[in-house]
Amino acid sequence: MNKLLFLAVIAFFCLGFYAMSANAQTMSNSNYIIQMGNLNMTAGKPTGSGYKLLNTVGQLSPGLYAGTNYKVRAGFEYILSRIPFRFKINNIYIDFGIINPTFPVLRNNILTVSNGSAFGYQVNVSQSRNMTADAYGTQIPATTCDGGTCTPSTAALWTSALTYGFGYRCDNLYRTDCDSQFLTPNYYKPFISSPSAVIVMTGSQVGTRSATITYKVNVSVVQPAGLYTNVINYIATPTY
C-alpha cells in the first residue's frame, strides 16, 4: 500500500472594530452657543398634592464632552472592559505524519477566545484549497461524510474507513460556543475554500471560552503518494 505524508498549516486572524464618535447638536448665533449632549423626547414638572417630580427622557449622543472642570464620555466606545478581545490557537502547525490508506488520522487544535464585547463575537473558518501535492497537483477531496450529505454548512456522520477526504469537527471545552450540529459524536463538515468562510464558534456572553477543533483525513489505496498541504484560516471578530 502507498504511504502518504500530509501537512496542514494553520493561520489565524484577530480583527477589532470600534464605533466612531458622533457630535451633539450645536445651536448658536452672534450672542450665544448652546451645545446639546442630550436629545430629549419629553420633559416637565409634574406635581400633585403630595409630590413634585422633575423629569427628562432622552439619551446622551455618543461622544466626548469636555469643559474646564469635567469630561463626559458617552457611548459604547467608552465602556471600560476588563476583558480585552483576544484570540489564541495553541498550535499553528499540524503534521499528519505518514498515513496508510483506509486508516483515518486525527489531529487537533485548541481555540481560545477572550471576549469583552457587549454584543458577542464569532470565529469563521475556511481553507486555502483542498489538500494538494504541489509536485503533481493531485488533491485529496473535501469529505462528504458516510452518506454523502455533509457540506460546509451541514454536519453529518463520518465513521466508515471507506469514506475518504478531509474534514473537521468542533467540540466545546469551556462554554458551548461550537456549532450545535457537532453535539452529535462523529459528525464532521468539509472546509469551505476562501474567500468564503463559515462560522465555527460564536457566542454572546462576556468571558473566556475554548473549543477543540479535530481534523480528520482518510485516503483510498489509489491516492498517489506525496506531500499534501493546505492552510486553514481562522478569523475572529468581536461584535460592537
Note down, in words, how this protein is organized:
By secondary structure, the protein is mainly beta. It has a single domain (4-18, 81-238), classed as Immunoglobulin-like (Sandwich). 0% of the residues lie in helices and 50% in strands. It has strands at residues 4-14, 25-28, 33-36, 38-44, 55-60, 63-66, 71-74, 86-89, 93-99, 105-115, 121-127, 131-133, 138-140, 156-157, 165-174, 187-188, 198-203, 207-218, 227-238. Strands 1, 9, 11, 12, 13, 17 and 19 form a seven-stranded mixed beta sheet that branches. The protein has a four-stranded antiparallel beta sheet with strand order 8-10-18-15, with no helix packed on it. The two termini are 54 Å apart.
What does the secondary structure layout of this molecule look like, with pairings?
Blueprint: E1 4-14, E2 25-28, E3 33-36, E4 38-44, E5 55-60, E6 63-66, E7 71-74, E8 86-89, E9 93-99, E10 105-115, E11 121-127, E12 131-133, E13 138-140, E14 156-157, E15 165-174, E16 187-188, E17 198-203, E18 207-218, E19 227-238
Parallel strand pairs: 1-19
Antiparallel strand pairs: 1-9, 2-3, 4-5, 6-7, 8-10, 10-18, 11-17, 11-19, 12-13, 12-19, 14-16, 15-18
